[in-house]
Give the backbone structure.
Amino acid sequence: FERVQANVAKANEEKRIRAQKILEDLQRKEEQTKRKQQEWMQGGDSGVQDKAISAERRRQDLLRNQAEIAKQMLAEHRRVQQEAERKVQEREEKQKEMSKERRSREVQTRKRIADIQKKKKEILKSRADTIVEHMQTVEERSKMCKEEQQRQLEIKAEIE
């Protein structure tokens, strides 16, 4: 992606440089035309004046054409730059969304793990409670059996 951006930036820079050269060339040609026009006007000849007027028209036409080309190149440069910026922004938004989804999945996973651990604790506690109850029942029965044996021994002792 960075290489693509670098290539786009390089192409944009080259277009900007070309547009700058065209504008400089236009300025240079305009200066040359004005100088020639002044030289012809100083000659005072009407043919020279016609040539100067014609040259001025050509110069203005050339300037308009070159200005239009420069505007088109600048518009293309801006369009490419905006497209590159839009792609970068879309990529960043997509990364943010993916990150958000990943965090959401992580949170859900943590919740599921916590729920499972909670259920495990409840099951273990339930089993422990059941075991304790069973042990109490066994102790009570054992105690009752001992008492019963004691009574039977006492009754036997009385009978004898």
